[in-house]
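[recover] target loaded
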């Protein structure tokens, strides 16, 4: 009924318009009083999946350029053969028209900023596209390749990751979306087996681009030469999909020099587009030796310099990539050629994107399960020969949940779709092999039980294996649509007959993730691996993930988010098992990424250049950590600029020194009493008490008296008193002259109040790292990473200011819906707002003697700043950073595959 009504309304529909239509229908006599709010919201979400998926165009920060594409199309000089085929394929694959239109628009913007291939004078263009993990970057650059070919680009090179499996997967996508033939078949010895039309080839076969690589193997000089020697001799575009590997690049450079350069200029005259997928990998991976990174970057620059006319477009989900951050002057000259000086484009994710906001903030309770039973069996840090005799109970439970989720999907009519589970619990391929064997044993045990007893109706529950499956179903999926137990039990057999447990890594035992060879039933696979699974490789229909790694590097963490993407018709079944600390890091990083996407939008409005955006990324507080990690091996101090404007700084590590903890409490109480003596009234608030208009001198005195760690330099550079004092000093007589102070009190009724500054304050209970606690350091951790709540930062604002900030935030989002958890940066951006100091008593979750019940912590929420770009100079000591973050775990496979 709703769909029929929508079809009669002018579109396209937004999240808001869908809900308005449902609201109109709910009051009709036939529905009045019968549709609950939750049901209406569920219906709206289902309709959005089918009709209302929207996708913004994203932000563009670019240098001035001369547009050429529109005129070329009007003059009939640019066709649309390749793009129109690809557009039809996207439509056939079920992509909503609004998303295809948005992809059309953004690829036009990118192409227009690349060089005009009809212009024969020399030119070079460098750009970057920043997307979200698993949000369709490959679809975007396949569209760009099609349009570039239509415009006249003759050579297109895609550099895809450092592993063969990832390169092969990318080649298969290019085969389907651009070439139209299965290149693996073209290399077949049997002539009859060679032709297999796939993807875009179904729609129009007048032209097929030539591929000098195929799904079976990377670039090879001999194969390329047998096809034909010169790029100029082809009448169709030539495409190569290669690994980011120095010997592959060396072969390609030699082949081009031998066959395609003009002897007079030593350059190739054909226009060339180079797409660097995962642009930060191997340009930034710390596992790579420094000279290898330099060599690969040098070869990419050399490849570009062979062409009179060349374009480089880097695609990444992590804008903290080295291309922005590496401040070493010797490296900077090498990297400079790849800096995206002409444009940076941020891709908006479609509104049905299942990303960090949904998983870790809005619906964490639904999707995330914490792992806390692994340390005795499979500790986070283990050696290459670690035995795997048994599995953590949480992993067995995750496997059972996956089997049930697949059965529910089959019951929903999704048996033709694929379903995958990811297990990433070790960096060693040998340990991954042992894990795979144990998981296969578990699946085999369940399969045997189901084969014998699943057909016995309720009596099946007498079988202990089936009874445990029923218990997991009750806990996880009893409320899910189309998931009553008899329907699930009836489908367990077909799920388990099809289920495969495989390894995906660089070992000989590894099996390919082949989603093409299947009949009417989709693939059901449990993939055990490490680096390959974490970077770039797409797991189709990923439903359950088990992730037991302690990587803290931002780009690694984001790339390991393979569980992000699109989950039409089964988003409610998706589950992620991970340690509490990991959840906290993801939520924290999501905010940092969100900040940068928002900054890109603001810089677009301010007509800023990519160079200015690069500076903004470099001065982001989180960039400080990435920069230092990249330089840890050097052990030297390096100066960086840190932006504290619009940022929250919190004490997350405190040394257990009773004298200092008492001094900290006194400093806080003195701040409150001196503020009241100065005539400031203490206002009671729903979640604490508020002082407004406190003089900056009192704040500075408090910060001088408070110590989180002994000595002058804390391990966390962002809480360094010198950094904060320098920043406040410059603004003490203007922007930061007056402060608000919020004394936060927990909303939990089961907490006992503690005395503080004449008040009764309920402390917040927080997890701490038990190992560090035994060494005398309280490092607050857990699923939030934040000591307080995001809403604390709205204190000091009026109700109107808060409502306006939330509404502006809603309107800035592609789907124009306000998420349950808003980014607190919106409160820091309110014009004219005062800086905010948040004081909070924390009760550590710890059974150690001599730990006080209430430890005073602080948070500083800084507003926008017009002075010095809101940054301050700071010197990072990389040795101290290593103490804080530990050594990075490097996967055995992280060095990539050989040729």
């Amino acid at each position: 009924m709703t769909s029929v009504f929508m079809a009669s309304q002018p579109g396209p529909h937004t999240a808001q318009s869908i809900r308005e239509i449902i609201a109109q229908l709910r009051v009709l006599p036939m529905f009045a009083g019968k549709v609950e709010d939750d049901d209406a919201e569920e219906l709206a979400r289902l309709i959005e999946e089918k009709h209302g998926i929207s996708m913004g165009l994203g932000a563009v920060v670019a240098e001035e350029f001369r547009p050429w594409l529109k005129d070329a199309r009007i003059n009939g000089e640019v066709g649309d053969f390749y793009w129109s085929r690809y557009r039809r394929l996207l439509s056939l694959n079920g992509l909503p028209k609004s998303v295809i239109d948005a992809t059309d628009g953004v690829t036009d913007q990118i192409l227009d900023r690349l060089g005009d291939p009809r212009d024969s004078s020399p030119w070079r263009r460098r750009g970057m596209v920043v997307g979200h993990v698993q949000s369709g970057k490959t679809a975007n650059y396949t569209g760009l390749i099609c349009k570039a070919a239509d415009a006249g680009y003759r050579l297109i090179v895609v550099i895809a990751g450092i592993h063969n499996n990832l390169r092969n997967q990318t080649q298969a996508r290019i085969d389907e979306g651009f070439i139209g033939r299965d290149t693996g078949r073209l290399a077949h010895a049997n002539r009859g087996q060679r032709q297999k039309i796939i993807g875009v080839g179904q729609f129009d076969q007048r032209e097929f681009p030539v591929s000098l690589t195929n799904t079976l193997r990377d670039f090879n000089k001999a194969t390329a030469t047998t096809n034909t020697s010169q790029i100029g001799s082809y009448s169709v575009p030539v495409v190569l999909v290669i690994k980011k590997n120095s010997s592959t690049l060396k072969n390609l450079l030699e082949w081009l020099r031998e066959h395609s350069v003009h002897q007079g200029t030593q350059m190739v005259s054909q226009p060339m587009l180079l797409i660097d997928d995962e642009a930060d990998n191997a340009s930034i991976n710390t596992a790579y030796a420094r000279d290898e990174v330099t060599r690969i970057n040098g070869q990419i620059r050399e490849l570009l310099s062979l062409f009179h006319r060349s374009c480089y477009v880097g695609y990444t989900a992590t804008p903290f990539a080295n291309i922005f951050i590496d401040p070493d002057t010797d490296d900077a000259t090498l990297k400079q050629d790849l800096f995206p000086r002409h444009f940076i484009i941020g891709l908006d994710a479609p509104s049905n994107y299942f990303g960090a906001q949904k998983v870790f903030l809005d619906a964490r309770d639904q999707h995330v399960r914490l792992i806390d039973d692994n340390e005795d069996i499979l500790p986070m840090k283990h050696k290459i020969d670690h035995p795997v005799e048994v599995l953590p109970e949480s992993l067995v439970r995750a496997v059972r949940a996956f089997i049930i989720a697949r059965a529910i999907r089959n019951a929903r009519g999704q048996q033709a779709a694929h379903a995958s589970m990811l297990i990433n619990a070790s960096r060693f391929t040998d340990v991954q092999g042992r894990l795979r064997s144990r998981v296969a044993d578990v699946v085999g045990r369940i399969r045997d039980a189901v084969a014998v007893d699943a057909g016995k109706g309720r009596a099946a529950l007498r079988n202990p294996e089936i009874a445990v499956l029923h218990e997991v179903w009750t806990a996880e999926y009893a409320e899910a649509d189309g998931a009553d137990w008899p329907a699930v039990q009836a489908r367990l057999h077909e799920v388990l007959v099809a289920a495969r447990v495989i390894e995906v890594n660089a070992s000989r035992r590894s099996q390919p993730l082949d989603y093409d060879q299947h009949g009417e039933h989709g693939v059901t696979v449990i993939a055990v691996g490490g680096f390959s699974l974490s970077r770039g490789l797409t797991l189709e229909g990923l439903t359950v993930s088990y992730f037991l790694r302690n990587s803290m590097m931002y780009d690694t963490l984001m790339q390991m988010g393979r569980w992000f993407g699109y989950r039409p018709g089964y988003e409610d079944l998706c589950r992620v098992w991970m340690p509490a600390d990991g959840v906290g890091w993801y939520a924290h990083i999501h905010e940092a990424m969100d900040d940068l996407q928002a900054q890109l939008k603001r810089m677009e409005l301010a007509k800023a250049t990519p160079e200015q955006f690069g500076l903004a990324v470099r001065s982001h507080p989180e960039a400080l950590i990435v920069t230092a990690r990249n330089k840890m091996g050097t052990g030297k101090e390096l100066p960086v600029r840190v932006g504290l404007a619009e940022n929250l700084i919190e004490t997350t590590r405190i040394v257990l020194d009773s004298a200092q903890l008492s001094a900290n409490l006194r400093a806080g109480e003195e701040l409150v009493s001196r503020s009241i003596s100065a005539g400031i009234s203490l206002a009671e608030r729903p979640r604490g008490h508020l002082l407004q208009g406190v003089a900056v001198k009192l704040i500075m005195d408090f910060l001088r008296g408070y110590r989180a760690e002994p000595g002058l330099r804390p391990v966390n550079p962002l809480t360094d008193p010198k950094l904060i004092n320098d920043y406040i000093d410059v603004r003490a007589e203007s922007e930061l002259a007056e402060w608000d102070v919020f004394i936060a009190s927990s909303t939990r009724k089961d907490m006992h109040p503690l005395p503080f500054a004449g008040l009764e304050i309920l402390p917040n209970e927080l997890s701490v790292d038990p190992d560090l606690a035994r060494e005398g350091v309280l490092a607050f951790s857990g699923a939030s990473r934040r000591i307080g709540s995001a809403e604390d930062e709205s204190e000091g604002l009026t109700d109107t200011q808060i409502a306006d900030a939330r509404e502006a935030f809603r309107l800035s989002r592609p789907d124009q819906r306000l998420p349950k958890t808003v980014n607190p940066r919106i409160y820091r951006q309110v014009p004219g707002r005062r800086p905010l100091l948040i004081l909070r008593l924390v009760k550590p979750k710890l059974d150690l003697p001599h730990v006080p019940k209430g430890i005073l912590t602080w948070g500083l929420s800084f507003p926008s700043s017009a002075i010095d770009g809101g940054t301050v100079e700071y010197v990072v000591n990389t040795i101290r950073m290593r103490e804080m973050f530990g050594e990075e775990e490097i996967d055995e496979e992280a060095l990539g595959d050989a040729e």
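[recover] notes: The mean pLDDT is 81.
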